[in-house]
Amino acid sequence: xxxQSVTQRLKELNIYHLFSYRPEVKVVPAVLPEGETIExxxxxxxxxxxxxxxxxxxxxxxxxxxxxxxxxxRKVAYDDLSGYELRKGLIFGKINLxxxxxxxxxxxxxxxxxxxxxGVLDSYAG
Length: 126
What we know:
This protein is of the alpha+beta class. The protein has a single domain (about 5-125), classed as Pleckstrin-homology domain (PH domain)/Phosphotyrosine-binding domain (PTB) (PH-domain like, Roll). The chain has 4 helices and 7 strands. The protein has helices at about 5-10, 15-20, 25-30, 115-125; strands spanning about 40-45, 50-55, 60-65, 70-75, 85-90, 90-100, 100-110. The strands form 2 sheets. It has a 4-stranded antiparallel beta sheet with strand order 1-2-3-4. A 3-stranded antiparallel beta sheet has the order 5-6-7, covered by helices on one side. A hairpin with a 2-residue loop joins strand 6 (about 90-100) and strand 7. It is globular. The two termini are about 25 Å apart. The model has no long low-confidence stretch (mean pLDDT about 90).
């Protein structure tokens, strides 16, 4: 998947305008393995850092780009999720992904992306 394919897929999901200015979009092609598709995407804050979450068919990809420290990413398989919780607030949403003992919390998520994420998690992790 190249940058043009990523941009096209985000436009198809009607969320490109939320991410067009983010440096994470530029590294998505390097993080996603060949054959993986973008089913949903969002961004939020976890552990004091801004992360872009890309939901594929097999994994959730956490991508963080820092201008000095470089790119950090984490891949979580849907099979490893023991549970999840999504909340939609007045302005922002919240995502909690449970990985056994560990819970990954992402706050300040774009509210309008929660519905797409719910559909993906229900289909692949449910």
